[in-house]
């Protein structure tokens, strides 16, 4: 098996069906696709030409589904596609050409409605995504995505990968979807903001309580009391907003 394509899935059925209209005709005996359903129990996925793994519970991010995919991968090389993105009709053939060079990593050129990226050496540092790369499985080894974070997990994964040789595909074969309402990436960002709002809110509230205690003990200026009340109110508002605007979806 030359290539394993791993696709984490979360509530984007129409998108992944469109993806497979382009991806499936390219498949052969040298390529496998692994779809990891992150707690959706979507039976329609079983009709696609892929190995489908259904996780019982939603993990809240792409890290765990990708790790499950890696554990089950049989290919010499591993590529990642986000379920709501698209590839070109020669996506696999272009990758297979580069696999023959036997480098540790292959950098892909890609396009979106905001960016038009052609890689002729190294990818732009502002795009540390895993879908823009193809990895030799031996290079990944025991390296895995951190499952307890849902923001910038791609960068952390790539920081642990140390390729010694590389090649690139200067033809744009990946199409990134900027509008991600239901994707695992979007879920991860929402969770990250919820955590940030909550932590900052707790910090402000704790500081406010400390100032109130100091005010009462040492009879400090009324200005201190007013500041502490403002901090307390701000902290409560942040906590409420974080858990309202960025609340997790009900399953």
Set out the fold topology:
Elements: E1 3-9, H1 13-23, E2 31-38, E3 51-55, H2 63-72, E4 77-80, E5 86-87, H3 91-99, E6 105-111, E7 116-117, E8 133-136, H4 137-140, H5 153-160, E9 166-175, H6 184-218, H7 222-245
Parallel strand pairs: 1-2, 1-4, 2-3, 6-9
Antiparallel strand pairs: 4-8, 5-9, 6-7, 6-8
Helix pairs in contact: 6-7
Q: How would you explain this protein's 3D organization?
A:
The chain has 251 residues and is of the alpha/beta class. It folds into two domains: 173 residues, Spore Coat Polysaccharide Biosynthesis Protein SpsA, Chain A; 62 residues. It is 40% helix and 20% strand. It is built from seven helices and nine strands, in the order E-H-E-E-H-E-E-H-E-E-E-H-H-E-H-H. Strands 1, 2, 3, 4, 5, 6, 7, 8 and 9 form a nine-stranded mixed beta sheet that branches. The longest helix is centred in the C-terminal third of the chain and has 35 residues. It is elongated, with a radius of gyration of 23 Å. It starts with a strand and ends in a 6-residue tail after the last helix.
């Amino acid at each position: 098996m030359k290539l394993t394509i791993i696709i984490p899935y979360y509530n984007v059925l129409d998108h992944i069906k469109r993806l497979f209209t382009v991806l499936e005709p390219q498949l052969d005996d040298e390529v496998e696709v692994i779809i990891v359903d992150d707690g959706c129990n979507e039976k329609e996925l079983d009709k696609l030409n892929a190995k489908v793994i259904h996780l019982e519970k939603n993990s809240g991010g792409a890290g765990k589904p990708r790790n499950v995919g890696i554990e089950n991968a049989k290919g010499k090389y591993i590529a990642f596609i986000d379920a709501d993105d698209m590839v070109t009709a020669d996506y696999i053939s272009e990758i297979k050409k580069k696999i023959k060079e036997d480098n540790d990593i292959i950098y892909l050129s890609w396009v979106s409605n905001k960016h038009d990226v052609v890689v002729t050496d190294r990818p732009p540092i502002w795009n540390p995504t895993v879908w823009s790369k193809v990895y030799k499985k031996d290079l990944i080894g025991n390296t895995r995505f951190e499952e307890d974070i849902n923001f910038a997990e791609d960068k952390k994964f790539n920081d642990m990968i140390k390729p010694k040789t590389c090649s690139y595909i200067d033809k744009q074969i990946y199409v990134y979807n900027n509008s991600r309402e239901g994707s695992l990436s979007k879920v991860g960002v929402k969770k990250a903001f919820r955590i940030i709002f909550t932590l900052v809110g707790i910090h402000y509230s704790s500081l406010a309580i400390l100032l109130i205690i100091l005010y009462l003990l040492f009879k400090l200026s009324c200005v201190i009391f007013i500041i502490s009340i403002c901090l307390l109110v701000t902290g409560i508002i942040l906590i409420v907003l974080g858990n309202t605007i960025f609340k997790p979806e009900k399953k």
